[in-house]
Amino acid sequence: MIRFLKNLFKTRxxxxxxxxxxxxxxxxxxxxxxxxxRHLIGKTGSTASxxxxxxxxxxxxxxxxxxxxAGDPVNVNLLSSTRTTxxxxxxxxxxxxxxxxxxxxxxxxxxxxxxxxxxQVGRALTAATGDGSIIEVEPCAPRKLIVAEAFxxxxxxxxxxxxxxxxxxxxxxxxxxxx
Length: 179
Known about the structure:
Elements: H1 2-11, E1 26-31, E2 40-44, E3 50-53, E4 62-64, E5 73-78, E6 86-89, E7 99-102, E8 108-109, E9 116-124, E10 134-148, H2 155-166, E11 172-175
Parallel strand pairs: 1-3, 10-11
Antiparallel strand pairs: 1-5, 2-3, 2-4, 4-5, 6-10, 7-8, 7-9, 9-10
């Protein structure tokens, strides 16, 4: 029997499907477009097997740890199940201990002050001096944040505004101060 198995695998290639099953905090996806910078936040691409650079309002998947051309396979460290800290690219100066949120171009920022939808992706463990800085982050499962304009002071209007925000299912709401 052993001789038979040895002969069988000697002349034929052996294949394994590694995409099935569970993954220990990281997955392999193919790039939807060229990525020239490592450690950008990625989102699910146009298909489940693809990854694209995440925008500020996009629901993030994880950190793209490789660079490559469209169609290349890359490693993605999942935000919600990684067992290690993650390196990310800052869009601005960020202090140690600040929560970090999605920003444009797959980068991260501290709590946004412009109206819109964002996702918290972790907490900064090292400081960022400005745009393009690499920082170490304690990642977390993405948490939806909505930053909204200040209330008008008109009861009915403010209730309708708040109801509209709550229908979007945020984990956190920040109302900007009245200027």
